[in-house]
Amino acid sequence: MGAAQERRDRIVVLGGGPGGYEAALAGAQLGAQVTLVERAGVGGAAVLTDVVPSKSLIATGGAAQAVRDASRLGVQAFVPGAAGKAVRPEIAVNLAAVNKRLLAMAGAQSLDMRESLEEAGVRIVQGSGRLDGPNAVIVSTSEGGGTDFDRIEADTIVVAVGASPRELDSAKPDGERILTWKQLYDLSDVPEHLIVVGSGVTGAEFANAYATLGSKVTLVSSREQVLPGEDPDAAAVIEHEFKRIGMKVMSKSRAESVERTETGVRVALADGRTVEGSHCLMAVGSIPNTAGLGLEEAGIELNESGHIRVNKVARTSVPSIYAAGDCTDFFPLASVASMQGRTAIMHALGDFVRPIDLRNVAANVFTHPEIATVGWNERTLAEASDVAKAVTHTIPLSTNPRAKMVGITDGFVKLFAWQASRTVIGGVIVADRASELIFPLALAVEHRLTVDQVASAFTVYPSLTGAITDAARAMHQSAQ
Predict the structure, then answer these.
(1) Which family is it part of (predicted)?
(2) CATH topology for 2-48+100-164+287-358?
(3) Between the N and C ends of the chain, which has fewer C-beta atoms within 10 Å?
């Protein structure tokens, strides 16, 4: 730290999302002179229009669904009707109020992050930046009706510009009826019939959220099963839950175009069928915001999709330039972006750094129930031809005492371990708040614990975490 303070290393960070924020904060903490360039606000799209508001919307929908499902536990809500006859009330969702709360919360978090950076000594410039070679950035700011340009020299540059929703020419979003996930928060009423095109993580999460908020939802999936990138057993549980709450899932149905009608939208499928609804959400992936930034002119290598190629310490093909987040070819997760941003700065300033191992990354799909994963899985083991070297065990949550008490009937805990050493190498949890339950398995994978070491830890009885130790104990028994 002392050397960095003496040199006053000059760092410029493009983008204030999770990766850029952590890079700027780490640089300031290590004594560097840091400038952060951000167009919309600190936190970027992740805080303002993506992760924070979307997961809050999903939680709101989950709360509404929990009320509907309370009868499973014997809790029934009724109002008196004619002649005193009990009538079950409808659950009302004020979407305008919900969205107002979500956006206010996102704005408050952005402000908190900005204040943290300013207290650390980071200079924040609101504007757009592009590279001017490997050691300078040109920033354009619009103030007073004009545009000003400023050239900032840097010893280290971190590109963390994120990604945007992919748009199709045959289904152009209009912000009213045909929407991207960034435009959903302008809706004042719950859509009467929402058609979601795309059954990946984003499509599945929003389809689930709006179904629980009260919309009729049709999910158009080009694949045989929803969430094609997830554990097949986990995806099967989610698809079953989707259908239980009334969602229509159209598998192996590729959407070719979306057009406005007098009353809503019409989605044309490749097989000639059409689906009509009030609104359509296009969830067909994202594209990195790397165009027009001068990256290739500076010598930075991009892949075919426009993502920046980085190594395990977030360094690009240019030694003075690093990159973090969804604009890179790493996992598009906020947690990974944050780790990349901090790792990049620590490496640039000569601090101790551990290269990022993507096999140790915990991830989550925020449906109801959630899917949490870490480490190896069936697909990656098969691709690496290591399936025969691994063992797995699954514990259905229907056998777990705590799950029975709270009314959980679906979901499971699945563990993966090397056959010879019994070292835990991965896991899948499908449950309410699986994002919280995955942490013990993330620790086991990170620190190479054996199933016996996991099994020897005490868990509360009754608890859902008991299913983790049960699975680990079963794997020990299978070795005898």
Answers:
(1) Belongs to the class-I pyridine nucleotide-disulfide oxidoreductase family.
(2) FAD/NAD(P)-binding domain (3.50.50)
(3) C
